[in-house]
TrEMBL record:
Name assigned to this protein: Restriction endonuclease type IV Mrr domain-containing protein
Species name: Paracoccus thiocyanatus
Record keyword Kinase present: no
Domain of life per record: Bacteria
Record-annotated membrane-spanning stretches: 36-60
Any single Pfam family the record assigns to this protein: Mrr_cat
Annotated keywords: Membrane, Transmembrane, Transmembrane helix
GO BP annotations, alphabetical order: DNA restriction-modification system
Gene Ontology molecular function, alphabetical: DNA binding; restriction endodeoxyribonuclease activity
Amino acid sequence: MGKDSLYGLAVIAGVFVVFLVSSSLADHLVDGFVAQFALTFALFVGFFIVAAIGYLVVAFREGSREWKREEIFEDPIDQRQINLKIIEEAHRKQYGNAVTKATSIISDHIETLARRRDALIRKDHYGVIDNSKWNIEINHFIANVIQPQLSGDYFRRIEMRNPSVISETINRLIDEHERTRPHSDEVPPGISPLDFEGLCARVLSECGWDASTTQGSGDQGADVVAQKNGKRLVVQCKIYTGVVGNKSVQEVLGAKSYYNADLTAVVCTTQYTKSATQLAQVSGVAISMNFGIMPNP
């Protein structure tokens, strides 16, 4: 039986009891049917009013307790939501601080990173850009330069929220650096052979060539391949402490045939032998020291 049915039966029983009590009191207090009926009715109404008031008081108190129970139940939920918002805001702030710190570290190494990207991004014979070695370099830089300088919580915050943000920031800052740094043909001291090749490709790019490095073994005598105005140029880049001899000129001539190039050049950081200079003049190879003279179709 439902709660409402029980309440109904209780009310009926209460009314019946009140009527009996009122009738019994009337019999003892007055004589005559009309007087007894009037007194019974008055007592019944009085008892009913008192019972109704009592019921309202009980109902009000019960409702007040129920409201308090709901308030007590809802408060922890609201507090948990507030706590979650506070934690999320703290995490967002930590993430922002971590990215700012990483950006500062990247900026400290931006020139080296720019040279490494010049050296490691290349195009194959079909013009397809190969970023694989540059991506490896980025991962190396993150693991060995950035991560040791960030606290564990900061670095984990970056990995959880946006793991690619550091690599994206590296490339963005290099792009900004390339646009703002002055064009320079000077070779930085201590530059590696691979970075020197990348520098050569960048200098050619600044002169309007579409240039990229060939990177390593199997290059058939060309360290940089570039195209401009429908002409293809192959370049051999040499960092020597002594003079550059015939071999470099001969190798770039072999690269000319292999790459079906129109122009050839050798760039070095030192002087050329008299024999190498003569061979270059006869064979049409442009020779340059520190990018002093570069072919222009």
